[in-house]
Structures are given as structure tokens and as C-alpha cells.
Sequence to fold (325 residues):
Amino acid sequence: MAKPVLLVTRKLPEAIEAEAERLFDARLNSADEGWFRDGAAIARRAAESGAAGILCAAGDPMGPDTVAALPDSVKAITTFSVGYDHVGVAAARARGITVANTPDVLSFATAETAMTLMLMAARRAGEGERMVRAGKWEGWAPTQLMGVTLEGKRLGILGFGRIGRELAAMARGFRMEIHYRDIQKLPPELEQGAVYHDNDDAFLAAIDVLSMHVPGGAGTAKWLNRERLAKMKRGALVVNSGRGGSVDDAALVEALASGHIRAAGLDVYDGEPKVFPGYLGLENVALLPHLGSATIETRDAMGRRALENLEAVLLKGTAAPHEVR
Ligand code: DGY
Fold:
């Protein structure tokens, strides 16, 4: 029997492309050609190839319009990401198309990125690196680039899911006190002593560092706005490795420029790869290019997970192990 056609929108790790070709009649994009940026082009390729599955990635325009334009041959979409805010899940469900993602395997790597940003913000690592590269470093000085320590500080984790809890475990090693805000209080075995806040005001007033791990979408759009920033302690730090849309960029830039927020670290941006221009002139913000899950080990694991989903639906006729609804 002919293998089902799988349309892959992005260049993937070598071993994953090889496995995709072993399992499916895979139409790869090994040169990472830019058609993945255009939903109509994705739908057209799916139609031309008679795709049964689409393996897309974070940020691909797989919203309701693209889903509506897909041919009837498409039965499954798997995104190479845990986030699926870029996929029209309801539109897909209405057409009987399974949508799945790659959870769990990237939690540690993404928490590592949040920890990196926290350290960069607290210890002014971006500023220091820029100074050295620009040839402006004149040697050690007692008052040069003094940051703040994380030791003993209260870390406020917004969204205490798998990534947030991995970050909490790391931060305990830095002797931080963990606080969290989520829709509901978690059982003690997941809290591990973290302090739950059932409202934003108490949460924001209590913490020294905010780390954001919310999934994006309308429910959390511009969550960190001027009003909430004002409720944070003067000199607090802000880190976002969730989704860029949950920050009101103009408000954060204002708070960074005034010193109300001492420093920030961002890995994700509203409308990325565009970056809000106000950040670019500020020394007290560390900017990473959405590196969250970017380790060799994690990206291989994400690829295997994506293929497991597609194999289940398209080859075994079973439910995708990581279906999202
Ligand atoms: C995800 O998986 O959603 C990440 O943001 C990609 O690194």
C-alpha cells in the first residue's frame, strides 16, 4: 500500500527528516524555503501533493483560514511545538482533522531558557557582553555593571504548568522562594512548597521576579499591561518565555525606561520575528530569538513526538497520543 503523503513545512533535524521519509511519503522543506510563511501556499502544497498529514511548526500561519483552505485529504496536523496558538484548532475539529502537539519533552529546555533570561536580567549579562564585543571594557572596577542576586528573592511564576514547575525546581537551587499564579491551586506534590496566589494583585505585589509561562491567545492578550506593572515592586525583574502577545510592549518599555522594572529578559515577541522597536535602544532588556526549546536533544525529542502523533492517526488509525482540543 502506498505510504500516506506528509507535508512538512520546515527544515527539521536530520534524524527526524529521515524518520519522516521512512514512515511516510514525506514532502520535506529541507531548504527551509519561505512558503511556510503563507497559509495559502501551505494549503496549495497540501492540495497538490494530496497530503494526509501536515507537520507544521511554531509560528506557521495555520489559523482558521488556512485550515478552511486545506484539501479534504488532510486528516491530521501536528505542530512541532507545545504551543498551538497558531493553529485553528476549532476549525480543524469542525472538519474532522486531528490537531496534536509535542508537550513534556521541551519543558526542561524552555525552563533553562527562562533561567538564562533571569540571570541575564539580574546580572546585566547582555550589557556586559555588548561592552566587551564593542571594545569598550577598560578592566575590572568595583562599581562596574552591578546587578542584583537571585538568592533569597521571590520568584513569581505565571502559569504553573510543566515548564513553570521545571523552572521552580531550578530556582530552588538558587535559593529563591517560589510563588505562583494559576487558574487553580495545585496539589501539594506539584506545588513542592510554592505559595499559591488566587489573585493578580497579591501575586504581583509579593514577588521580585516575574516569569511568564502562559500559552498566548485572546485570554491572556497583553496581560502584563501598565496597570499590572504598576502593582509590581519597584526594581522587580520581568521574564517572558511563553508567548509575546501576553505583554503590552509599550507599557513594559515605559517601565524599563523609568527604572520601575529594573530589567527584563524576553525570548518571545508579539508578531515575531518583529521585535517592538522600543526594546532595541534599552540596555536593561536581554533579547533572545525564541530559543526556548532549542537544544539538539529537545528538538529531536519533539520531532519523534510529532511523528508519533502522525503515525497513530495516519498509519495505525488510532488517536494521536498528544491530541489538543
Ligand atoms: C513551543 O514549543 O511552543 C515553543 O515556543 C517553541 O520553542
Observations:
- The first strand starts at residue 5 and ends at 8.
- DSSP finds 13 helices and twelve strands in the chain.
